[in-house]
C-alpha cells in the first residue's frame, strides 16, 4: 500500500473512532436525561396521587356533611325525598333534624291548606317558617320552626 492510502486509512479510522466516542457520549447523555425524566415522572405521579387522595377526602367530607342534606330537604318534595335517601346511607343529626322539620311543615300545609280562608293565612305563615328554616340550615344551625318545630322532632323521630 502506498503512503497516501495508509494515511487515508488512518484518517478514516480516526474519524470512525471519533464518531464512536461521540455516539457513546450522546447515548450516555440520552440515558441520563431519560433517567431524570423517569424520576420527574415518578415525582409527578406521587404528587398526582396525593392530590387525588386529598380531593377524594374532601369530596367524602362534603357528601357526608349533613348541612347539604338539610338544604336539599328544603327544595320541594323531590328534594325532601332525595335528602331522605342521602341521609339514609349516612345519617347526620342536622340532616335528620331538617328532614323532620320539612315533613312537618309540608303536612301542616297539606292538612290546613284545604280550609278556604285559613289556608291562605297558614300558607303565608308556613312560607315564613320555611324561609327561616332554610336560613338556619344554610348557617348549619338546628333551630326548630317557631310553630310546631319541637313537636315535629318528637313525632317524626323515626326519620
UniProtKB/TrEMBL annotation:
<keyword id="KW-0812">Transmembrane</keyword>
<protein>
    <submittedName>
        <fullName>YtxH domain-containing protein</fullName>
    </submittedName>
</protein>
<keyword id="KW-0472">Membrane</keyword>
<feature type="transmembrane region" description="Helical">
    <location>
        <begin position="68"/>
        <end position="85"/>
    </location>
</feature>
<feature type="transmembrane region" description="Helical">
    <location>
        <begin position="121"/>
        <end position="139"/>
    </location>
</feature>
<keyword id="KW-1133">Transmembrane helix</keyword>
Amino acid at each position: 500500500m502506498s503512503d497516501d492510502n495508509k494515511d487515508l486509512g488512518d484518517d478514516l479510522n480516526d474519524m470512525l473512532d471519533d464518531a464512536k466516542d461521540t455516539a457513546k457520549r450522546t447515548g450516555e447523555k440520552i440515558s441520563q436525561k431519560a433517567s431524570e425524566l423517569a424520576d420527574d415522572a415518578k415525582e409527578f405521579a406521587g404528587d398526582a396521587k396525593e392530590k387525588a387522595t386529598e380531593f377524594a377526602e374532601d369530596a367524602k367530607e362534603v357528601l357526608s356533611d349533613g348541612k347539604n342534606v338539610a338544604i336539599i330537604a328544603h327544595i320541594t318534595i323531590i328534594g325532601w325525598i332525595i335528602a331522605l335517601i342521602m341521609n339514609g346511607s349516612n345519617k347526620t343529626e342536622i340532616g335528620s333534624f331538617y328532614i323532620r322539620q320539612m315533613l312537618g311543615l309540608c303536612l301542616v300545609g297539606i292538612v290546613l291548606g284545604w280550609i278556604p280562608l285559613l289556608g291562605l293565612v297558614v300558607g303565608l305563615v308556613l312560607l315564613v317558617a320555611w324561609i327561616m328554616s332554610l336560613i338556619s340550615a344554610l348557617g348549619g344551625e338546628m333551630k326548630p320552626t317557631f310553630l310546631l318545630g319541637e313537636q315535629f322532632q318528637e313525632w317524626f323521630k323515626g326519620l
